[in-house]
Design the sequence.
């Protein structure tokens, strides 16, 4: 009875290996039409179809409209005065009323119009710089989604390899159970491990599908594409060239806008004269007369002093923020480079030392079990396989962290800035 059960268990194990092996091959097969999507292609798709482009375009249109409005000078005035049309004594009849129609114009002095236009144009530059920040942030999120999809894809072969290893363990254990070298429950434990590994493979594949779909959502597509695993396995620690980040460019534009606002505020201390010309009609005698006049505000030298002081303080604050931003960005870049260096060093040591050692341990234990020795047990074999699988998973996680740090590094160093020109032309 026991021998029949062992033989049947061995047959089931062999069939499971054959059937699942075929399932693995079928799952690994990709459609012939599936396109291999690299990072540049993913970012280019977003650059031409991102709905955020319409919002940025509207902001620029609003800023351009401010320039148009800044070019408008003070409006001329038409007016009429009615005098002496009612009163007492000799001024009671309507026939003695005086009517004056007049036209008035104000002349701006001190370059007010030019200062307004300059401030509006500076605001356009600020809006453009802020739009570029938004686009770079979206490209960084797309790149992060691409990294997550690569990491999810890289986890599949790790899970499949573990499944294949555990199936081999199951076969070896069944043989030992059939030879009365191990108790029968070790075969059940081996089958349990295989079942758990099968679930892990299914979950890894589903996670990869979800990650691809999440990536494709950025350009409104579907996840019917492939990813190049070589892009995930490569880890380049080359230090990228450094330049002022887009965040500093925003502050630079804001500083220029603050300087323009200071000039605009200073023009408020210069008075604008007004001149008036009119024609007066005298009801008593029906005579006409021409009248002229003018006016200029008094005490205007310090009338706008508070606005000038405030604009100058804003300018100093932005200049200080710019200095702080440069320091903080440099510190963050240095920290990212250091972290990526540590991760790369650990990956290299895993490849050179840990993986070969863990692989040798599994092979030595398996060789001992296959020869029918009793120096090793199924538990030791399972633990060695688990340790090897953990190392492989650790390597995938390290690569994921390395590339996610690269996303932030690319954002700070403006690696994808050339794509912005393509995105900004879509208005």
Sequence:
């Amino acid at each position: 009875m026991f021998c029949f059960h062992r033989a049947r268990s061995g047959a089931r194990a062999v069939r499971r290996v054959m059937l699942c092996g075929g399932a693995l091959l079928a799952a690994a097969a990709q459609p012939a039409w599936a396109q291999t999507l690299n990072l540049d292609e993913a970012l280019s798709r977003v650059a031409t179809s991102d709905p955020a482009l319409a919002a940025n375009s509207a902001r620029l249109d609003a800023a351009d409209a401010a320039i148009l409005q800044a070019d408008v000078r003070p409006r001329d005035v038409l007016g009429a005065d009615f005098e002496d049309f009612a009163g007492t004594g000799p001024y009671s009849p309507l026939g003695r009323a005086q009517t004056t129609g007049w036209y008035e114009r104000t002349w701006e002095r001190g370059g007010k119009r030019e200062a307004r236009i300059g401030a509006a144009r500076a605001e356009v530059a600020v809006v453009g710089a802020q739009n570029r920040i938004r686009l770079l942030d979206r490209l960084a999120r797309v790149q992060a989604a691409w990294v997550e999809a690569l990491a999810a894809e890289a986890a599949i072969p790790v899970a499949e390899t573990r499944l294949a290893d555990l199936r081999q363990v199951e076969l070896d254990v069944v043989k030992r159970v059939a030879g009365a070298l191990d108790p029968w429950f070790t075969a059940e434990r081996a089958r349990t491990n295989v079942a758990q590994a099968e679930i892990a493979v299914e979950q890894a594949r589903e996670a990869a599908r979800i990650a691809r779909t999440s990536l494709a959502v950025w350009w409104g597509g579907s996840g019917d594409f492939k990813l190049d695993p070589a892009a995930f396995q490569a880890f380049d620690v080359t230090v990228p060239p450094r330049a002022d980040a887009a965040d500093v460019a925003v502050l630079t534009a804001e500083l220029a806008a603050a300087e323009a606002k200071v000039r605009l505020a200073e023009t408020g201390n210069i008075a604008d004269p007004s001149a008036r010309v009119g024609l007066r009609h005298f009801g008593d005698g029906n005579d006409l007369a021409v009248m002229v006049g003018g006016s200029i505000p008094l005490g205007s030298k310090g009338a706008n002093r508070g606005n000038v002081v405030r604009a100058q303080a804003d300018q100093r604050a932005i200049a200080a923020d710019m200095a702080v931003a440069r320091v903080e960005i440099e510190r963050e870049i240095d920290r990212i480079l250091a972290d990526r260096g540590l991760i790369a060093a650990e990956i290299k040591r895993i490849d050179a030392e840990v993986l070969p050692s863990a692989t040798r341990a599994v092979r030595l234990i398996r060789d001992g079990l296959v020869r029918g020795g009793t120096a090793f047990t199924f538990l030791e074999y399972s633990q060695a396989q688990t340790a090897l699988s953990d190392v492989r998973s650790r390597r995938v996680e390290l690569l994921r962290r390395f590339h996610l740090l690269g996303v932030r590094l690319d954002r700070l160093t403006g690696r994808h800035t050339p794509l912005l020109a393509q995105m900004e032309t879509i208005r």
